[in-house]
Amino acid sequence: MWEYFVAIVLGIVEGLTEFAPVSSTGHMILVDDMLLHSKELFPASVANSFKVVIQLGSILAVVVVFKDRILDLLGLRRMRKPGAAPARKGEPRLKLAQVFVGLIPAGVAGVLFEGYIDKYLFSLHTVLIGLVLGGILMIVADKLGPRVLKVDTVDKITYKQAFGIGLFQCLGMWPGFSRSGSTISGGVLLGMSHRAAADFTFIMAVPIMAGATLLSLVKHWDSFTPEALPFFIAGFISAFVFALISIRFFLKLIQRIKLTPFAIYRFVLAAIIALFLYL
C-alpha cells in the first residue's frame, strides 16, 4: 500500500506544480528525493518511466482545458464562446504557425544541449540556483512590464512576440527555473497581459512536452510490466486530476495577483531545500 501512496502523492505534486511558475523539479526533489525516496521502492528504470507517465497526465489536463482552442488551431472547430477567439472575419486570432514559431528556440536548444543538461545540470545546487534566478525574473517582469498593454488576449500575439517567448522558454531548460515562469515572464516583458502570456505558455506546452514525453515512453517501454502498471495508472490519474484543478485555478488567479507572490514562494522553497541539503 505504501507504493500506491507514493505513486498518488507524486502524481499530485506533478499535477499541482507542472504548469504553475513554481518549478515542478524543485518540488519533486523536495517531496520525492528528500521525503518519499521512491527510488528505494522501484528500480531506476521504473522510477524514470513513472515520471514520464505522470507528466502525460498533466499534459492531458492542458488538452482538456484548452480543447476548444486546440481544435480551433487545428481547423477542426471554430471558437465562438464569449471571451474566446473572435469569430468575425478579419479579426486577429492565434495561428498554429505562431505556436510553432514559439517552439523553435527551445526545440533547437534541446537538440544541441539536452545531453549536457542531463549530465551536468540536474543537481540540488543547480535547482536552487534556478529557483532563485527564476523568482528574480518573475519579479522583474512584474516591475518592468509595460504599463500600457499591447496584447491583452493571446489572439493578438505577434510572430515576433511568439519567438521572443520561445527564447525565454529556453531558460526553463535549466532545472528549477520553471518553463512556465520563464515564458510568462517573457510574455509580460514583451507587452502581453499575464493571462495572455499564460494562455500561450500552456498551449505551447502541449506539443513540446507531448513530443518529449512520447520519446521517453518509447525509450523506457520495457519498464511497463504488469507489476508496475497499477502504480503508473495511480500516478497518471492523480496527476491528471490535480493538474486540471491547478490549471483552472491558476488561470483565474494570475491576472489578479501576477507573478511576485509565486516568486516569493520559490524563495521559500529554495530555503527549505537548502536546509535539507546543508543541515
From TrEMBL:
Q: Where in the cell is it found?
A: Cell membrane
| Membrane topology, as annotated | Multi-pass membrane protein
Under InterPro entries, the record lists: UppP (IPR003824)
Write one Pfam family the protein is assigned to: BacA
Q: Is the keyword Cell membrane assigned to this protein?
A: yes
Task: Please name the GO terms that the record assigns under molecular function.
Answer: undecaprenyl-diphosphatase activity
EC number of the protein: 3.6.1.27
Q: Where are the transmembrane segments?
A: 52-71, 96-116, 122-141, 200-218, 230-251, 263-278
Q: What else is known?
A: Bacitracin is thought to be involved in the inhibition of peptidoglycan synthesis by sequestering undecaprenyl diphosphate, thereby reducing the pool of lipid carrier available.
Q: Output the PANTHER family linked to this UniProt entry.
A: UNDECAPRENYL-DIPHOSPHATASE
* Protein name, UniProt field: Undecaprenyl-diphosphatase
What is the originating organism of this protein? Paenibacillus hodogayensis
